């Protein structure tokens, strides 16, 4: 009887320990970079069965399965761009190998994948320090879209500086730029979108980005259209000098 109780206690304790481990493993690590087409963070870990088929299908050995005891859930596919980036296979073999849809088959064009977002460390980027580099721009598969160069004059010489700028609407998060960065520690890195991107909020309205009856008043008049009459001066005895618009622009309010 005593042995049965001991066995039951051991089994229940082991079950609770395993349940806790699985619960911990189901939580996504915030720095994890997943394969192309990975579904939303809240669903990926439950949909992915950690079978490793995407890892086997990757022709560049980019993908790896997380080992036990690490910072990522056991068996989760991930990649480290500084070691081997995603080379954006046009046929997306990792996604096709996924049996559960954790890598969504809705991804048809590899350039539409959003594995992460490149972020530049301006304090250590060679181009932002005034040196000629631009390697990230040259190596980018979507050069001119995901990474562009801004021309800036140099104060101390006649030579210009070329600053790389990342555009979130085109960056795939492949990590080729991070791999190619020549600094000892990469000055451009791929991070999950949630860690680096804010959200403006739905209550803000950028009125100048679309046409309404109100925004029409702020547009320049078409060529050849009649010029509006100047504002009428303030009535005699009014504290406002000139017209009301000039008064408001004086900065006295």
Low-pLDDT stretches: none
Shape: extended
Q: What does the radius of gyration come to?
A: 28 Å
| Order of helical and strand elements | HHHEEHEHEEHEHH
Continuous helix count = 8
Count of β-strands: 6
Residue share in helix: 10-25%
Mean pLDDT: 82
CATH topology of one domain: Alpha-Beta Plaits
Largest sheet: 2 strands, antiparallel
Write structural notes for this entry.
This protein has helices at 2-25, 41-47, 53-57, 93-97, 135-139, 176-180, 193-196, 244-249, and strands at 64-65, 77-78, 117-120, 147-152, 161-166, 188-191. It is an alpha+beta fold and 253 residues long. A two-stranded antiparallel ribbon has the order 1-2. The chain has a two-stranded antiparallel sheet with strand order 3-6. The longest helix has 24 residues, at 2-25. It is extended.
Q: Summarize this, please?
A:
With 253 residues, the protein is of the alpha+beta class.
Lay out the secondary structure:
Elements: H1 2-25, H2 41-47, H3 53-57, E1 64-65, E2 77-78, H4 93-97, E3 117-120, H5 135-139, E4 147-152, E5 161-166, H6 176-180, E6 188-191, H7 193-196, H8 244-249
